[in-house]
Amino acid sequence: MSNVLVLVDHIGGVVPRAVGELATFGKRIGSVTAVVCSSQSASLIPQLSSFSIDKVIVCEGVEFEKYSVGATAQALQQVVAKESPRAVLITSSARGKEIAGRLAVRCEFGLITDAIDVSAEVIATQSVFGGSTTVHSSISHGVPIVTLRSNSVDVQIGSTAPVIENLSVSYDGVDKAVVTSLEPAVKGGRPELTEASIVVSGGRGTDGNFAPVEEIADLLGAAVGASRAATDAGWYPHSNQVGQTGKTVSPQLYVACGISGAIQHRAGMQTSKTIVAINKDPDAPIFDVTDFGVVGDLFAVLPQAIGALKAD
Amino acid sequence: MKIAVCVKQVPDSWAEKKMGADGLLDRASVDSVLNDLDEYAVEEALKLVEAHSPTNEAGEGSGHTITLICMGPEKATEAVRKALSMGADDAIVITDPALAGSDALATSLVLAKAIKDGGFDLVICGTESTDARMSVIPAMLAERLGFAQLTFAGSLKLEGSNISIARQTEFGIEQMSAPMPAVISVVEKINEPRYPSFKGIMAAKKKTITTKSLADLGIDSQSAWSKVNDSALRPPRGAGVKIVDEGEAGKKLVEFLRERKLV
Ligand SMILES: Cc1cc2nc3c(=O)[nH]c(=O)nc-3n(C[C@H](O)[C@H](O)[C@H](O)COP(=O)(O)OP(=O)(O)OC[C@H]3O[C@@H](n4cnc5c(N)ncnc54)[C@H](O)[C@@H]3O)c2cc1C
Ligand SMILES: Nc1ncnc2c1ncn2[C@@H]1O[C@H](COP(=O)(O)O)[C@@H](O)[C@H]1O
User: Residue B107: which domain range?
Assistant: First the structure.
């Protein structure tokens, strides 16, 4: 049976749910081998136990944190040479895509990024041009490397304990860029933006007061996002920015509060399944993509909605 | 210092984009502009040169050069002019009918060859082209050139021949440093791109744009490693409901969410 490699990303030692999604996609294609490249593999491996993974290959080393992207691409190349996989699946994060790109160059394999689905035949589905067009793509050269956006599939739960294998890898003149320190993205109690099934975002219309946005987000179990106007003003951290130069989110429900819906913002949220907006301006472009639009003041509408939700 | 700035011409972000029958973006039907994220790369190059120039200005007398590198159709020279009018010194445009439909592997191969031939110390890119949106070209260039990869820079400092950046990704902020040569990509928070001045626009008309073909670079006709099998317009969103708040909109919003089983 064919074999699929899945790269185990982690943020501050926590394996994101997106890795479980990769395993779920991988199962369609063949048996799943997870690849852990880290100096903290002992704490990462147990986190894989609930996913559908058949085997784990561990490349232990400090290089991966020290040299960021380049070392991981080199390690993966050696795993690919050993395993001859049918496909390599990686998360569509900034870092994941860079690793995929460097691996593609090293191996001369074709690369597809930002897929939202991949079939048993390794045909990838992408949603392009702000979600207006759906594209099916395949690789015509080498082993397909596909990066997948998180929140694209329900994670399938695994039952069998994976086989663990250690692999020692070598590096030729690794990337000379050295990481001297890391300030991890602050994790609040809320779900991660790209993984949340509901996202509530605030824009310039909040005038810096995110309290009602956060309150309804917490009632809904949602992540909080922000437009660039809001992050530029310092009202919310850049890591919460949704849009072309922020994160791309694709939740079940996206609620835009006081956001006009500029093309750069829409580029990051247009593929959400249901879109709701609250905006004072009836002509705001956000209403072109909403399923339910409220022309009104967010400081009146949100508190009333919060009250109605609490009345449950 | 010899700096290369990679700039791409892309369809205007506001334009409706669609696929042609050949599975490629239909570029003929939309206006093309300089990728706005690349303006930040041009600005950062100018700031670097200005900070290390005896005249505090870029251009002749600064002791440094900024060369734009662009792969694209012949009319990409229009977008390149804009970056020249911001203050870059000259440009190389790689254009060849065989490059139509190039993917990231092919693009990075061509750009890397042009950069290698030019003997640059520093390559500065935007983080993303607004049409392809892959964000992989800078990392691929670092791999192909064997240069240090300093990407997603939210700030940048050059001391001697050492560059340090604050890399901003979903991981948080990583402080990184490396000696030149390096490939840098800059996020849009790093600076505020200048508007071309009238003087800049006039000067740009006289600046040299060298056009090169694949044969000039000594590369065999390059095909893509990936292909689009088919594409379809997503069914348009059903016209949504839009209500004007007359005092009950918050409740109606919650009703809508309940109907859709979202709460
Ligand atoms: C290179 C580049 C990259 C960019 N990347 C991004 C990106 O990643 N993400 C992003 O979001 N933007 C991005 N932008 C910026 C984008 O163009 C817009 O400027 C930005 O999205 C506007 O944010 P906003 O909607 O919050 O503010 P505005 O456009 O000012 O809209 C505020 C809205 O709030 C409404 N409002 C005001 N008060 C209230 C109230 N009390 N109740 C209800 N509604 C109210 C107003 O009617 C208005 O529609 C980028 C721009 C550039 C040039
Ligand atoms: N055809 C091209 N010509 C010149 N530079 C490019 C080209 N394509 C991409 N780039 C550079 O690479 C960056 C990232 O692009 P991408 O990987 O396509 O999202 C852009 O911001 C440009 O700086």
Answer: 2-217
